[in-house]
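Weekly modeling sync, notes
Attendees: S.R. (lead), two postdocs, one rotation student

Agenda item 3: backlog of single-chain predictions. S.R. asked that every request posted to the team notebook include the full sequence so nobody has to chase files. The rotation student volunteered to paste the first one in as an example of the format we agreed on. Action items at the bottom.

Example entry:
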Amino acid sequence: MADGDIKSIEELVEHYGEPQGYIGEKEKPALSEHCKHFIALSPFCVLSTSAAGDGLADCSPRGDAPGFVHVIDDTTIAIPDRPGNRRTDTFHNILENPEVAIMFTVPGLNEVLRLNGRARLTTKPALLEKMVANGKTPLAALVIDIRYVYFHCGKAIVRADLWNADKQVDRKDFPTLGRINADWYGADADEIDARLKDEYANKLY
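Predicted structure, as returned to the notebook:
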């Protein structure tokens, strides 16, 4: 670590030390009742994947009404796929490499729930029918067989003051997605913003 970069596990442990007590073994192979309760309260999670070939990583937001993630049993959950941009980057990755990581958040709570497992994409009607929203059945669902799950303390959320409504950025202080895409791709900003306004109001499901 002479140049300031940590380049090995040994250097990492030397720099940070070892986790103390139960923290070093906090991962559990199944959902507890607290985990299930947290997932039932959660309207938002971030799903992380990576491709098998080039190993490029990706993370994707998933959100809906609290409880949108379906708990099948103590070691299995399912996430419905609602309409998006049709890039299906996440699904491309999972078909190559099924290992995924998910972080659940609940507005107002500082703790987060972290979950890792192996995912598969399904269109089985019996499962999709359990995740109907606004009268619409999802096109598919991501089923995750849990490897381990644990709660992460709230230090990051506390430092960010994430749930403080007084800290929210005013919409006028950041450009719209239409304007961003116009600057990046030469697209029509007004057309994109009008389309998104309609999709947000009428085509979320």
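Discussion: group reviewed the output briefly. The first strand starts at residue 44 and ends at 50.
Action items: rotation student to repeat for the remaining queue; S.R. to check formatting next week.
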